[in-house]
UniProtKB/TrEMBL annotation:
It comes from Actinocatenispora rupis. PANTHER family: BLR6921 PROTEIN, MAJOR FACILITATOR SUPERFAMILY MULTIDRUG TRANSPORTER MFSC. The chain crosses the membrane at residues 38-56, 68-87, 93-116, 128-149, 155-177, 189-209, 215-232, 253-277, 289-307, 319-339, 351-371, 383-406, 426-448. GO terms for molecular function: transmembrane transporter activity. Residues 2-452 form the Major facilitator superfamily (MFS) profile domain. This is MFS transporter.
Length: 469
């Protein structure tokens, strides 16, 4: 029951992101957003969400993971009410920022609670498989739900639907999740470190999601300086917000870097893939959601039924690399899409390959990223995983969407018809996405090296490099 509560909370957060994307045209028409202003309906959420994940995870370690989870649900639900009631642009953007705060608090501690509540290797692999399915497949379900709600009701209901889910999940969380008040709270929060890392991540994510404009370069420089200041602070603080030795683990650092690269490739392609089936294949919002259902189905089957068996029998690293290869192959196949394509021959094979790859590699990657977490630092490790996921997704979307738009513009300037120019832009983005996943494969092979088993350890039980932990 505890796992169900945690995964429902995660599903609500994941669904919200893609549901909003589907409803953006309706929101623009209703509230009179310009194209640039409309982007802030998404950006306000991303900046708050990405900026607070690490802090929220650490607060869970120091105070109470259950408390942070429940408080996040309350903030997210209240902000959803404000979003649904919004009658002007400023109100909606402000409410979306607060929604991002609640989303960060809710999602940052979930993996930490999972690894502490399910300590056994087999049960932990099974629980992480369920979590990975929810995190990966929720986006596809969100596309379908967004199409249904927007077409049958109004865009306000994409936010109102969170209210009963948030209330029921919050009540259930108080009843079934174990209390975990942390005695370490008396050591005090590293307030300077918290301010520096939150500011660095917010400015950094803001720079990524709004990469153009006269302030982009100064903001990027400010993010780097804030991050450098944070590292200096953590190296000298008596009770650091983020103990730097966690990054000495080759497995933890490598898995998070692989996660960032993989998400950079996949998230941008899901966004552009949705545009491809809408603009070139003529699908509506509901049809787009249905087009991605095969991916969700395969992820569910593999994550829920087979991931735990694969990881327990072969080891997480052994399972990870073939999964990433399948994702890269699917992206490369997508890079060949024609202008007048067919879903059955040009899209479905890609969905099947990517779904299989995610279903195999997702749980393995989450297992490796949390492998060095102790009971005291599980919330921090969970927040770190979510931060790299969020930053990688935002960076991938910004880079791939920009490359696609530039390629389309160049093709149109050369006299290429608009549909052909669009297809050329999508193909370039898909090739770049495949390249990012190939880089992730190389990084996984280099950084996630199995250690030699100790002389007394059974040869069939591989260990993974966790130096410094």
């Amino acid at each position: 029951m505890s796992l169900i509560v945690l995964c429902v909370g995660m599903l609500m957060i994941v669904l919200d992101a893609t549901v909003v994307n589907v409803a953006l045209p309706a929101i623009q028409d209703s509230l009179g957003f310009t194209q640039a202003g409309l982007a802030w309906v998404v950006n306000a959420y991303l900046i708050a969400f990405g900026g607070l994940l690490l802090l929220a995870g650490r607060l869970g370690d120091l105070l109470s993971r259950r408390g942070v989870f429940v408080a996040g649900l309350a903030v997210f639900t209240a902000a959803s009410v404000a979003c649904g009631l919004a009658q002007n642009q400023a109100m909606l953007v402000a409410a979306r920022f607060v929604q991002g705060v609640g989303g960060a608090m809710t999602s940052a501690v979930i993996l930490g609670m999972i690894v502490t509540m399910f300590p056994g290797p087999r049960e932990q692999a099974r629980a992480i498989g369920v979590y990975s399915f929810v995190a990966a497949a929720g986006g596809s379900v969100g596309l379908l739900a967004g199409g249904v709600l927007t077409q049958l009701t109004s865009w306000h209901w994409i936010f109102f639907i969170n209210i009963p889910i948030g209330l029921v999940t919050g009540i259930a969380a108080v009843r079934v999740l174990p209390a975990d008040d942390r005695s370490r709270a008396r050591t005090g929060l590293d307030l300077p470190g918290a301010i520096l890392i939150t500011a660095a991540l917010m400015v950094g994510v803001g720079t990524i999601v709004t990469p153009t404009g006269r302030y982009a370069l100064p903001l990027a420089g400010a993010a780097v300086l804030l991050l450098a200041g944070f590292l200096v602070r953590e190296a000298t603080a008596r009770n650091p917000l983020v103990p730097l030795p966690i990054f000495r683990s080759g497995t933890v650092s490598g898995a998070n870097a692989v996660q960032a690269l993989t998400m950079a490739g996949m998230f941008g392609v899901f966004f552009l893939g949705a545009l491809y089936v809408q603009h070139l294949l003529g699908y509506d919002a509901l049809g787009t959601g249905l087009a991605f259902l095969p991916t969700t189905t395969i992820i569910g089957i593999l994550s829920l039924r087979y991931a735990e068996r694969f990881i327990t029998r072969f080891g997480a690293r052994t399972v990870l690399v073939p999964g990433l290869v399948l994702i890269a192959a699917g992206l490369a196949l997508f890079a060949r899409v024609p202008v007048h394509g067919s879903y059955a021959t040009d899209v479905l094979p890609t969905m099947l390959l990517i779904g299989t790859g995610i279903g195999v590699s997702g749980p393995a990657l989450a297992t490796l990223a949390m492998s060095g977490a102790t009971t005291e630092d599980a919330g921090l490790a969970s927040g770190l995983v979510n931060t790299t996921t969020q930053v990688g997704s935002a960076l991938g979307l910004a880079v791939l969407a920009t490359l696609s738009a530039v390629r389309t513009h160049v093709a149109e300037a050369a006299g290429t018809p608009h549909p052909d120019a669009l297809a050329a832009g999508y193909r370039l983005a898909f090739w770049c996405a495949a390249g990012l996943v190939v880089l992730a494969i190389g990084l996984a092979l280099v950084t996630l090296r199995p250690r030699r088993a100790a002389a007394t350890a059974p040869a069939e039980q591989p260990e993974y490099a966790t130096a410094g932990l």
